[in-house]
Amino acid sequence: MIPGPFLLYLGHSDDAVGIKTSRGVAAFRPDECVGEWRHDDCPLTLGLPRMDAAQGRAAGANTLILGIANAGGKMGDALIRDALSAIATGMHVASGLHQRLRDVPEIADAARQAGVQLFDVRDPPANLPVGNGKKRAGNRLLTVGTDCSVGKMYSTLALQRTMVARGITADFRATGQTGILIAGSGVPVDAVVADFISGAIETITPARSDDGWDLIEGQGSLFHPSFAGVSTGLLHGAQPRAIVMCHDPAREHMRGLPHYAVPGIAECIAANLSVARLTSPDVQAVGIALNTVKLPEDEARRLCAQTADAHGLPCTDPYRFGADPIIDWMQTCFDTSTSPMTVSA
């Protein structure tokens, strides 16, 4: 486990989507976050006290979380300097970037000398198996998306928390750096060699004999030319009984690809069900999760209702408005007499 409390790094970021890791940790582990470190040219905020490394350490932070993302996951000179400043105060450093902390000589040397730890969250476990597609027991739900960064992790965590609050056994299975930092475990599937992606998901969602659910955080999109491979491996490895389609209605084009349009929700649901049926022939779509953060509440609620009517599925913003409509639909879809959604005692 990465030692808390945390100081969340925003640095020089000006991309609201690019700080999703820091934002996610602040949203789902607020009691562990003492502040945010952002420079004067950063227009973004998480609403936390602003502080630098020394101030964060004085406030009790044990770990600096480099919760930013950029194309290629590289560490720039400014980020390296800030990581070194945090290490000099005695803080550990955690990162979900593709470039590993341990592979930056000055960071590795400074950590060694200071006696602090480096946590490279995007390190996949060793000896992952190749997926075998064998039918395994248990209930699994996978969130999927029309694009990258549309709220799959938020939706999965919201579903899990609502299920638990309603007495339903449910476990969150993290597949990205932010989810792993929140849950404390998981597998970063976008760092797994392609042949082992489905096997990695089989590993973190083994057969279960109870009536509970594994809720698996989705990644990428089948319609994103850069990341469709990860999405495919997840669909096959998850063997989902249910999928929830996540969508950002304010998205004008595929993230990072202005020459690619965002697919329609119905088209995307059909494609994901088709791919999932290779290993889970009876998979069902059970809801649509909209990321309405950019919309006023009345417009967001109206859009959810219109989307539900258009697709014949419950639609909500699970983080903003709650996940109950989707869970209610699941209880209708799945025979509760055979207990897949039976409420725990």
Automatic annotation (TrEMBL):
Residues 44-124 form the D-glutamate N-acetyltransferase-like N-terminal domain. Residues 130-326 form the D-glutamate N-acetyltransferase-like C-terminal domain. It comes from the Bacteria. InterPro entries: DgcN-like, DgcN-like_C, DgcN-like_N, P-loop_NTPase. It holds the Pfam family DUF1611. This is EBNA-1 nuclear protein. It comes from Sphingomonas hankookensis. The lineage of its organism: Bacteria, Pseudomonadati, Pseudomonadota, Alphaproteobacteria, Sphingomonadales.
